[in-house]
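Researcher: Predict the fold of Type-5 uracil-DNA glycosylase.
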Amino acid sequence: MDDTEPDRGADHDDRGYPARHAPRCSGLGELDALVTRCRACPRLVAWREEVAEVKRAAFQDEEYWGRPVPGFGPADATVAVVGLAPAAHGGNRTGRMFTGDAAGDFLFAALHDVGIASQPSSVHPGDGLTLRGVRLTSPVHCAPPANKPTPGERDTCRAWLSAELDLLSPGLRVVVALGGFGWQALLPVLDEAGWRVPRPRPVFGHGAHAVLPATERRQELHLLGSYHPSRRNTFTGRLTMPMLVDVLREAAALGGLPAGRSVAP
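Model: Structure tokens for Type-5 uracil-DNA glycosylase follow.
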């Protein structure tokens, strides 16, 4: 992360920090830098920093990131994958979205199978992993206790996701929501960002597919749903690898990404 980006004052602890600064970002690099400095939600700040200090026994020798985790993927992505929030000992440890935990391992294996990730695992930011045409992000950028952000925390963080989708919008064709939380968080964001969400609002489910028609500001957007690749869902078989690959393959096709099973680093 580039800490030379403009700091824009010392209001990181203000709950209005995301809404005040996110819409003014002119690029994803600037947005990501501001995300990592956010301290707008006291409960999340306390939790992520406590986890980073106490650590899990298996990672005692590692220095945890312990800050908000920005999105990961190219600025010209045509597909966005939206999860829930960073894992306490995953993204909160490594500083990269979906990196260093079981859910991320499952997701990257599927992305690699589809041909839009250069390798089937994501261990740390320096592992050589690259993505093609897809960006990973979440409605909440800090690890929450028990993996459950509050509605207020979700709403405070919403400005970051809205700005991110806006910056991606020139090429964005598809958004994949991993889980009901991501789906429900996305709908008002898409409304705010200038897309027309159908009424009644689309209902989440694995394999759900809603088409948001083009508007004066936005081109047509496909919204796809998948169960979240949480350990609970994958262990119980609620979500299998073929199920996730099918959704991601559909997203890649709708996003105009070439089919294949590998990406050159």
